[in-house]
Amino acid sequence: MTTEPAGPDRTQRAVNGVLLPGFEGTRVPDRLADAARAGLAGVVYFARNTPDVATTAALSAALHSASPDLLIAVDEEGGDVSRLEAVSGSSLPGAAALGAHPGGAAVSLDAGRALGRLLAATGIDLLLGPVLDVVSEPDNPVIGVRAFGTTPDDVTRHGTAFARGVRSAGVGVCGKHFPGHGATTVDSHVGLPVVDEPLDAVRARDLLPFARALRPEGRDAGQSVLDAVMTAHVLFPALGPAPASIEPAATRLLRELGHAGPIITDALDMGALRQLTGSVGEAAVRAVEAGADLLCLGLDPALYTESYDALSRAVAAGRLTVERLEESATRTQALVTALRDRRSAAGTATGVDAAKEALADLSEVGACIADAVVHVRGARLVPLPPEAEPDVVDLRTRLDHAAGRIARHVQAAVGAAWPGARMTPDEGGEMPGDGGGDAVAGELGPDEHGLAVLIARFSRYGVSADLDRVGTKRGAEFPGVGPRVASRSRPLVVITREPVPGSAERTRLERLWAVRPDLVVVHTGLPGPVDDWFGALSGGGPAVVVACGTGRANAVAAVERLRGPASSQDGEEQHSSEQ
After folding, report:
1. I want to staple 79 with a disulfide (CB 3.0 to 4.6 A). Which of 59, 132, 496, 549 is the partner?
2. Nearest-CA neighbor of 81 among 50, 60, 54?
3. Which InterPro entries match (predicted)?
4. pLDDT tens sequence across 148-162
């Protein structure tokens, strides 16, 4: 038996075999098709590839026609992070909503099953999820409601159930972000997070959901529910001097926990690695040296070229071997084969018609989940009348890079219910007086001047901080305010995400609360800290619609609470924000 020499063709295929790039558009670019035929491991879908499920199904068919062994992956967590429904917003509430559902892990299983059918119908092979991070830091800028909960037990229970549901439809799952992104206060899209805690503490909190998913007990004992694991651009000094995605000790730890499938990096063009390695190409080489099998890349075709060239140079210089790259490619191809067999056994339909039907089913499942979870905290909500023309002010200050933008699904749902609603910022992102103040770089929402304009607008209706906080009905007389003046006031709805005491978002909320004690909050962030964040405001705080995320299903359910349907008014307050 002869061994094939490490010539140009073999090296080309070996390098391609560890790359997982994105690409622009809804058609297969010629260059991508060439790479697919030359051993490209797979592709990652972004929102620009998936404007609707019919287009996605057709694109997947074209990609698999170019290379039947191509792995098609996507970030489709539901809730805040959606690619297949990026424009309209996700039909499925996110992980925080599932974790809060009184039905427990069985609901997460059903949600995963419904999402898996949609992924299978659109020809997608691998879900880059579930998120297995334990969100132990309330001020976490990137995980938040993407996590199933704040304890390892909750995350394990719901995360593994969700994974089983997805897998039952014939689709693979990739747990993320190993060893854990939940304790961070820095978003790895823009900087390098550090979790400087003892390894024992990390094991007991962050590693536990991964360990239990890889070696589950009960009916799945000995059989991992994860097909792949994604490493995080997070530095754990207790593990080693580099972020986990390029740290050999993190890879060794993951293998020790029992993971035998591919190890996938988070996107190598994220800020955490760019700042450290200086280039995506160098990050790619270091990730493979650390033991990664698949390297996620962004949309820009230059990222594929840079990574490919850097890996090729590393082979030529002896820094990497072809055999090392082929080892990773073999692991990925074993996964692809297993997924093809799983899809066949599941009998899940694929194609345009199947995708439309699966999306309708997912919407029904998601609406039921959102209706059970979205609730009102605090003072009894005074419903907005059908003829209202509310002011809607988005106080969120930080861009959710994982979601791709600050989602406006709450605004869209309010506008659909009350066409006269006035949005601030407007759709173009403009605030009253925007550009004249001291907004922090990288933040959104009103600057000081814009907030002052809003306060002046709202104050002239005569509602002030020394008046009663709750009226018996919208437009009710407050002490000292005549009905003619009070009736001129538009209802005020504010949207929050992280009103952490001392933050810019909190300051803006406090200033609006002082002049508009009748305001209502739609809170899209973590449900757990709601009592602490809002109850500490003077007078016990406003009525808060706890949406558990910004997906379309969450937003629609939040608007139903603002409408105050009879079915939800009698029992809202006993619905704890800790559920």
Report:
1. 549
2. 50
3. GH (IPR017853), Glyco_hydro_3_N (IPR001764), Glyco_hydro_3_N_sf (IPR036962), NagZ_Beta-hexosaminidase (IPR050226)
4. 999 999 999 999 999
pTM above 0.85, yes or no: yes
Place of tokens 């959710």: 400
Task: Convert the pLDDT of each residue in 491-525 to its tens digit.
Answer: 999 999 999 999 889 999 999 999 999 999 999 99
Residue 131 phi, psi (nearest 5): -75, 120
Of the candidates 512, 394, 411, 388, which has an alpha carbon nearest to the alpha carbon of residue 457? 512
Question: Is 195 in contact with 183 (CB distance < 8 Å)?
Answer: yes
Structure tokens at 185: 């206060």
Read off the amino acid at residue 482.
G
| DSSP letter, residue 263 | E
d(CA 524, CA 232) in angstroms, rounded, equals 24
Q: Phi then psi for 545, rounded to 5 degrees?
A: -85, 115
Residue 252 and residue 231: Cα distance in Å, rounded? 12
Residue 128 CA neighbour count, 13 Å, CB half: 29
Largest Cα separation within the chain, whole Å, is 96
Q: Nearest Cα to 382, choosing from 464, 458, 468, 475?
A: 475
Mean pLDDT of 528-552: 93
Residue 265 bridge partners (DSSP): 231
DSSP string, 456-469: HHHHTTS--TTS-S
Find the helix or strand (DSSP H, E) in which 295 lies: strand 295-296
What is the tens place of the pLDDT at every residue in 386-405? 999 999 999 998 766 666 55
Long-range contact list for 466-469, CB < 8 A, 24+ apart? 467/517, 468/517, 469/379, 469/517, 469/518, 469/539, 469/540, 469/542
Please state whether beta strands 543-546 and 375-377 pair in parallel, antiparallel, or not at all (unpaired).
Answer: antiparallel
